[in-house]
């Protein structure tokens, strides 16, 4: 957007708007004389082969269905079940900034450790080439990715971005320079697992060994308890294919140590029949059926009482106690327990450990390095519906396969899957000549002392700016308002210049100026007068000082009287006590 508030054609009284209306009239005539010609010229809908790509201008953010924001590039491909595979392609560190795996309010050194672990894990999965057309998934099956929303939509999101930038490019690698499998999770319960204990299919890893983890005690999930009445436990057991054979249940016990992932739960019925089930399988079964059977009871609250447990039985690390009235699970931790415990990292950081110390503790001495072959970009595959909208707060290049649709599109575009191809629909007004109504004052003109509200209407998506010039025609302020949709838009000018200082009294021209995707501009400023600001006279200052002094003196008298009254009351009370004692 240029610094100047308007072009001469706008200063001449909005001739551009008139030209736009004339063009619309001509289009209407052509539509009558040549049926279909106007629709063809508007270029508002396309049927194209994919993939369809939206690449936002530098510094901009893409928006999907007006509620999810992403950086860089979105690519649409056919997805499973008739839906859409939405691929966010972006730089590696921008990807890490979109990871939502640790609260951004936590200590900075813990956040840095998380950033390095997430970057390493992303690179590790990318190298496996397990996903067709993209590199990594956005769920807990990989690591949770929520795009630009992680930084923009969080109170402390800027701290997470700071941690990512402070460790830019840093990863954990093996002796051959390849990324290690940087597993992490929430809470260890006091001891981490070796990789082969939990993931035997991937075997032992030198950097994923079992360690004692006392710093994990800061977690509200370090220890947890789940209580079932005997009736509730029987109801749950009755829903299991094997467990139903031992209802009513008379006893239940763990066979194996709490830290042994291969341990089982033995459940015994009234007739003496018993069933053994893996502790992990029992956890999954109860966590699935308990909220369904007793939604008001499960999952229960954490030990701190602030919120529910993440699931009814968070891990397979629990012992079982059976009383006359209850079946009680005494458990510890949350997550698979291999690699870095996030709460343990928090506890270590609060104790003064650096992110290098934290990573070395959980990954058997490894410390990060900047790898030359770390990929610059990564592609995240996200499931989406068959139809969605894609917009941005800046201009967007839209392509379909090898075809350029728009070099600098504005507004929210609708994209609908049509078999293996796509239907692209441009925003309302996209194919029309630009028309921006004259700027009008809606509030503040009668007493222009601290602000003035102006508005204008645009007929299509535009890049909108507020432009103010002084009596000499020099630019006082140009405020970029971003991309807006068709409609009426209202803006407040608080009589400030580009540096934020109040402007001098005088006449000013203030206008809302729109620029469309083709680079055309329109908008007619309105003239306002900023009056002289009245300064208080010396007499008023003196009177004000007198009033202040008088008020202060009056308040002092009131305080003295109040103290005196209080003392008299105390004396009277003392006399009353003396009389009563006599």
Could you characterize the architecture of this molecule?
The protein is of the alpha+beta class and about 575 residues long. Among the domains are: about 110 residues, Immunoglobulin-like, CATH 2.60.40; about 180 residues, no CATH class; about 110 residues, no CATH class. It contains 13 helices and 30 strands. A six-stranded antiparallel beta sheet has the order 1-22-21-18-3-4, with no helix packed on it. Strands 17-6-5-2-19-20 form a six-stranded antiparallel beta sheet. Strands 25, 26, 28, 29 and 30 form a five-stranded antiparallel beta sheet that branches. Helix 5 packs antiparallel against helix 11 and helix 5 packs across helix 12. The radius of gyration is 34 Å and the shape is elongated. The termini are far apart. The N terminus and C terminus are likely disordered.
Labels describing this entry:
582 residues; Immunoglobulin-like; 30 strands; six-stranded antiparallel sheet; 28% strand; alpha+beta
Secondary-structure map:
Layout: H1 8-11, H2 15-33, H3 37-42, E1 45-49, E2 52-56, E3 61-64, E4 68-71, E5 73-78, E6 84-91, H4 92-97, H5 108-128, H6 149-152, H7 157-166, E7 170-171, E8 184-185, H8 195-198, E9 224-229, H9 230-237, E10 249-255, E11 264-269, E12 274-278, H10 279-293, E13 318-322, E14 326-331, E15 340-341, H11 342-350, H12 355-362, E16 369-370, E17 377-384, E18 387-392, E19 396-400, E20 403-409, E21 413-418, E22 421-425, E23 440-443, E24 452-458, E25 462-469, E26 475-484, E27 487-493, E28 506-515, E29 521-522, E30 526-530, H13 538-581
Parallel strand pairs: 8-15
Antiparallel strand pairs: 1-22, 2-5, 2-19, 3-4, 3-18, 5-6, 6-17, 7-16, 9-14, 10-11, 11-12, 13-14, 18-21, 19-20, 21-22, 23-24, 24-27, 25-26, 25-28, 28-29, 28-30
Helix pairs in contact: 5-7, 5-11, 5-12
């Amino acid at each position: 957007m240029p610094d100047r508030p308007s072009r001469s054609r706008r200063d001449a009284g909005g001739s551009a708007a008139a030209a736009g209306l004339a063009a619309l009239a001509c289009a209407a005539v052509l539509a009558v004389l040549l049926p279909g010609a106007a629709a063809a010229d508007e270029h508002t809908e396309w049927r194209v082969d994919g993939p369809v790509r939206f690449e936002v201008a530098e510094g901009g953010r893409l928006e999907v269905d007006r509620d999810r924001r992403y950086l860089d590039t979105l690519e649409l491909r056919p997805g499973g079940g008739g839906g859409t595979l939405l691929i966010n392609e972006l730089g590696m560190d921008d990807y890490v900034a979109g990871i939502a795996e640790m609260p951004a309010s936590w200590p900075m050194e813990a956040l840095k450790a998380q950033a390095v672990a997430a970057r390493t894990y992303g690179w590790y999965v990318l190298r496996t080439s397990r996903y067709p057309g993209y590199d990594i998934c956005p769920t807990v099956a990989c690591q949770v990715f929520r795009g630009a929303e992680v930084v923009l939509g969080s109170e402390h999101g800027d701290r997470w971005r700071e941690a990512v930038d402070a460790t830019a490019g840093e990863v954990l690698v093996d002796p051959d320079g390849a990324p290690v499998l940087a597993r992490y999770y929430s809470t260890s319960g006091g001891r981490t697992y070796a990789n082969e204990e939990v993931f035997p299919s991937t075997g032992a890893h030198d950097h994923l060994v079992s360690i004692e983890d006392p710093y994990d005690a800061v977690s509200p999930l370090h220890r947890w308890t789940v209580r079932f009445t005997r009736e509730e436990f029987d109801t749950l057991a009755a829903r299991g294919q094997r467990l139903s054979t031992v209802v009513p249940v008379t006893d239940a016990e763990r066979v194996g140590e709490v830290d042994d992932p291969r341990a089982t739960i033995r459940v015994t019925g009234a007739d003496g029949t018993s069933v053994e089930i893996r502790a992990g399988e029992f956890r999954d079964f109860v966590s699935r059926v308990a909220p369904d059977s007793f939604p008001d009871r499960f999952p229960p609250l954490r030990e701190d009482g602030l919120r529910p447990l993440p699931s009814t039985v968070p891990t397979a690390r629990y012992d079982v106690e059976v009383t006359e009235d209850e079946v009680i699970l005494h458990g510890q931790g949350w997550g698979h327990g291999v690699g870095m415990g996030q709460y343990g990292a928090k506890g270590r950081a609060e104790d003064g450990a650096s992110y290098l110390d934290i990573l070395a503790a959980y990954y058997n001495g490894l410390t990060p390095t900047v790898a030359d072959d770390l990929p610059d970009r990564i592609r995240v595959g996200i499931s989406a519906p068959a139809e969605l909208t894609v917009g941005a707060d800046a201009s967007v290049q839209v392509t379909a396969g090898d075809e350029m649709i728009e070099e600098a599109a504005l507004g929210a575009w609708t994209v609908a899957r049509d078999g293996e191809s796509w239907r692209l629909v441009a925003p309302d007004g996209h194919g029309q000549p630009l028309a921006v109504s004259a700027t009008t004052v809606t509030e503040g003109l009668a007493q222009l002392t601290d602000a003035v509200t102006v508005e204008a209407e645009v007929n299509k998506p535009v890049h909108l700016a507020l432009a103010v010039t002084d009596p000499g025609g020099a630019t006082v302020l140009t405020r970029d308002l971003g991309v807006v949709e068709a409609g009426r838009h209202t803006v407040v000018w608080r009589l400030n210049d580009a540096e934020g200082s109040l402007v001098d009294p005088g006449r000013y021209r203030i206008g809302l100026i729109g620029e469309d995707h083709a680079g055309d501009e329109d908008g007619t400023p309105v003239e306002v007068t900023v009056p002289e600001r009245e300064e208080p006279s010396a007499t008023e200052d003196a009177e004000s000082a007198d009033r202040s002094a008088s008020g202060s003196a009056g308040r002092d008298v009131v305080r003295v009287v109040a103290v005196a009254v209080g003392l008299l009351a105390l004396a009277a009370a003392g006399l009353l006590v003396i009389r009563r004692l006599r």
